[in-house]
Amino acid sequence: MRWFDILMPSRRQVFTGCALVAALLTGVLLGMTLTAPAAEAQATRTFSGDAALMFHFVKPSESSAFEGVMERVDAALDSGRQSQSRGWKVYRADNDITGGGNVMYVWTIDPVASGADYAVSTILNEALPEEVQSLYEAYNGSYTDAQLKQLILNLDLVRDFGG
Asked: Is 24 within 8 Å of 126 (Cβ atoms)?
């Protein structure tokens, strides 16, 4: 006789109930994990360091679209987010560190505006609500199909050789 059949009927019901709750929790946790990237697209983007670097890996065919969106972000920053725009620069790298033929763009933000939201979708929506949908689609569509699309580095100053 199996150990499960030996248990009293009430213990068997408790065991079955616990197993169902565990399965339900596992499903909820997996569901949250699998849907997190979609929710991340609209996430707030803040930086915790004194400065920050953000690497963007873009399809070569979409580099002009990415740069076009950055032009619109620049215009949007001029309408009330000057503290952010002061230290924010966008560079295009001359080599591809991913080996996938991508174009790498690097944001340098120094100094970081403490507590400011650097999410492109938020900035565009505040200043250019009539354009935000098409701009965000161009921005999002410019990223490589590889798993690594962005890489964020928060930087804390250790030594300033110029000061």
From this structure: no
> Distance of alpha carbon 85 from its chain centroid, rounded?
20
Furthest-apart CA atoms within the chain: distance in Å = 80
The per-residue b/e assignment along 66-97, b for 16 or more CB within 10 angstroms, e otherwise, is beebbebbeebbeeebeebbeebebeeeeeee
Q: Which residues in 47-120 belong to E strands, given as ranges? A: 51-58, 88-92, 103-109
Q: Tokens 């002009």 appear where?
A: 64
The separation between the first and the last C-alpha atoms of the chain, rounded to the nearest angstrom, is: 80
Q: Which has the closest alpha carbon to 139: 150, 130, 147? A: 150
pTM of the full predicted structure? 0.72
The residue ranges of every structural domain in the chain are 3-38, 51-155
DSSP strand pairing (88-92 vs 150-155): unpaired
Tell me the pLDDT band of 163, cut-offs 50, 70 and 90.
confident
CATH topology for 51-155? Alpha-Beta Plaits (3.30.70)
Task: Please give the DSSP secondary-structure letter assigned to residue 56.
Answer: E
Give per-residue pLDDT as tens, 11-50: 555 555 555 445 554 554 555 454 434 334 557 999 999 9
